[in-house]
Amino acid sequence: MLYETLQVVFDDRVGIITMNRPAARNAMTTRMMTELRDCFSAFYVDPQQAACLVLTGAGTGFCSGADLKERKGMSEATWRQQHAVVEQMIKAIMDCPIPIIAAVNGAAYAGGMEIALACDFIYAAEDARFALTEVSLGIMPGAAGTQNLPRAVGVRRAKELVLTATPFRADQAYAWGMVNKVCTPDQLMAEVMAVARRIADNAPVSVRQAKKSLDRGSELDRATGYAFEIEAYNRTVVTQDRQEGINAFNEKRKPRYKGQ
Question: Global pTM?
Answer without folding.
Answer: 0.96
